[in-house]
Amino acid sequence: MTSTPTPLTPVDPARLQEVLDGRWAQVRRDAREQLGGAQYAPVYGESMAEARERVTALTQELARTGRVSLGFPREYGGADDAGGSVVSVEMLAFADLSLMVKAGVQWGLFGGAVHALGTKRQHDAYLPDIMSFALPGCFAMTETGHGSDVQQLRTTCSYDPATQTFDLHTPHQAARKDYIGNAAQDGRMAVVFAQLVTLGEGRGVHAFLVPIRDEQGDPLPGVTIGDDGPKAGLLGVDNGRLSFDHVTVPRDMLLDRYGQVAADGTYTSSIANETRRFFTMLGTLVRGRVSVGGSAGSATKVALEIAVRYGDTRRQFAAPGEDREVVINDYRVHQRKLLPALATTYALHFAQEELVSRMHDVLGAAEVDEAAQRELESRAAGLKVANTWHATRTIQLAREACGGAGYLAENRLPALKADTDVFTTFEGDNTVLLQLVAKGLLTGYRDAFGSLDGWGRAQFVAEQVRETVLERTAARGLIQRLVDAVPGRDDDVALTDRGWQLRTLEDREKHILDGAIKRLRKGAATPGARPFDVFNDVQDHVLEAAQAHIDRIVLEAFVAGIERTTDPAARALLSRVCDLYALSTIEAGKGWFLEHGRLTPTRAKAVTSTVNDLLGELRPHMRTLVDAFAVPEAWLNCAVLAEEPGRQQAMAEHDAALRAAGVEPQQAATATALQMAPAQ
Ligand SMILES: Cc1cc2nc3c(=O)[nH]c(=O)nc-3n(C[C@H](O)[C@H](O)[C@H](O)COP(=O)(O)OP(=O)(O)OC[C@H]3O[C@@H](n4cnc5c(N)ncnc54)[C@H](O)[C@@H]3O)c2cc1C
């Protein structure tokens, strides 16, 4: 069943851009205006050495602009603006992804760890040089043997009261720090995560500031530095390996905000439980994960912009009786590729914007709210997963949508693919992160700390599992009203009814979660069942619940984003895009909905035909939807777009259509694109 929607009118991309730019519009504007030049654009065909040299120089230049300090405290020249710092990383990701990662390592991971885990004494000593890049640094957590389960790191740092120093040691090859950004070439200091031992007792993983190179760039005594060598992408980032042979670390180099060692070796911490302390420490570093998700979103937008613009001018095959060949964006299957991906990109943009806002407020709160912190971590994990998997899928799809041209380095897509591939792995492997999301859903946020794959005692978790009451995430009142307004019988409700769409995704999440909980409880009640087996048997079910949860919260965020949109034409367009996101998500899960009697076969077919109707309806707006991302033309650095045949004419027609609808298209994206278009 479908309703007849009001026809869409042309929309000025600038109006949409305003909505997308959101709370940190100023940071986005500033990046476009001040950094939007060609020097930050990606470069193709470099050797690894050339890429590293260029990206290091650009990182220095970026530091000089002062635009990297947003997240640091005001007293050191920052702005105490955690949200702004993430958004500025997202903006860099439109440009060069190696630069984005290098900047993320220096100011997000290294600087962020000193800021979050250190104390004033350490901030005074190191933050100014970190911010200016006078002190390039590393975040050395992962070891060759342990990446996901970092509570099991093997590097040790043992305190000796006699010398009042720590002894940092790599006991074997698997304990070597690996993949560490900034280690192979530039890093002079590292935040090293190691097992703290004092007075013969292990106190769990802590972070230590450790100089690794001298002024000449040579490794310091006892430090062995290796190079990870060529990688699939991110050529400009110098990832390397670090080993420590009984390196002496002064007592005051322990980043001791959460755990202190007195001169006599006595250990103190405000958090008694070791696991809890460790996860609290990790929780303060959530910004890195949020930045990676957002940057994946930016890379996806660039890929879609290239594919949509290419598809608007590329012609193949003529319709019978026609002279001119058809532009490929007019083919339904091409729309099937690009438009649902575009709709999901919009949905994830709103979810990311809401996450950044929430992160900013939670991290900036005067009082630590532990429940809010746990919820933030879970949301950050979920959206990192959704954004990075969506990027990997969509960039491949955009590559194919550009045919052979998509395979040429000069057209940007191969670099986007190679550079973003690892986003599904670093800052937390996606599968492991989904377990974190699932764990939050199962146990609530009470006393549920544990290593990501440890899960604690089965019986304990089975007792803790919450009743499946789903918490609304965005625009709670509005969404509840929409859901409550849906009439009882599904078959009578239009597929484009927002309340029905919300209720459908909510119902799926609740059902999957209920099922997983029942199975966990049953498993835990079986005499002799091993906790590992109880969880392992249900692992796929639990992850499916997490995925369903992410789909639901993303839709809720989209609905909340539309609610904030005041321009009527932009709001109507976003509403159709939201229909496409919701219905293509339901269409992708048809198997489940049919299996569980949530859709009749007739209604399932209607979902597909409604998606097709939406594709036809949104076809004329594809270009507007990508223009609204307002990626500076120089950053795209895509040869096939620079040569876009008939580009000026297409833009002129686009503007004429806007004018006919009473909209003056002089602002932002359209105007910028025209001004920057190369001479034909
Ligand atoms: C380019 C690059 C840059 C990096 N930069 C840094 C850096 O600067 N600093 C730093 O500290 N680290 C860095 N890393 C390391 C990165 O964070 C780790 O690679 C990542 O956390 C995954 O760990 P792993 O490689 O040990 O994979 P593993 O944890 O061994 O995962 C391998 C596979 O096992 C699966 N798996 C693991 N556990 C489970 C489970 N419980 N259930 C089901 N499946 C499971 C995973 O899904 C995955 O498919 C970087 C890595 C790369 C590639």
What would the keywords be for this entry?
disordered C terminus, 9% strand, binds flavin-adenine dinucleotide, 24 helices, 6-stranded mixed β-sheet, alpha+beta
Q: What percent of the residues sit in helical stretches (DSSP H or I)?
A: 40-55%
Using only CA atoms, what is the Rg? 26 Å
Query: What structural category characterises the helix and strand content?
Result: alpha+beta
Dominant shape: globular
The main pleated sheet reads as:
6 strands, mixed
How many DSSP helices?
A: 24
Any ligands, ions or cofactors bound here, and which? Answer: flavin-adenine dinucleotide
In terms of per-residue confidence, which ranges show pLDDT below 50 for 5 or more consecutive residues?
Answer: 445-455, 666-680
The N- and C-terminal alpha carbons lie at a distance of 48 Å
Compute the number of strand runs.
13
Mean pLDDT figure: 91
Strand fraction equals 5-15%
